[in-house]
Write the structure tokens for this entry.
Amino acid sequence: MPYKGWKTITVKDEVYDYFQGRWLKEKDEYREQGITSFSGFVTKLLFEMIKQEEFPHLRHINTYENRVIIGDRRTDSIVLVYLREDGVAWCDKDEEKNCDHVKFALSLPQVQEAYRRKGLKIPET
Ligand SMILES: [Zn+2]
């Protein structure tokens, strides 16, 4: 049985093998970003695909302890979203907590995982 909040799907061998091959090659790099399982890895790729459709001008560059680095093609800039200790995600560029950068950052699986680890609720945007 999957964990609460997760579902199981069945995919063709070729699809599974593609993702498994990438995971085996790239897992050290992803572990540094806090993604520790194959399932988390596939979820991250699928989330990125969804977010590409929702925010086609934004790209996740990296996540560190308390900040997410996002590339914004619309303004040709790098944007920092800070994950504050009180749980608020704060955009350094727009100086607010409800812009697309924050929405994009909060949708990332590793950011959600960081909130879970700290016992913080993910803010509504
Ligand atoms: Zn912003």
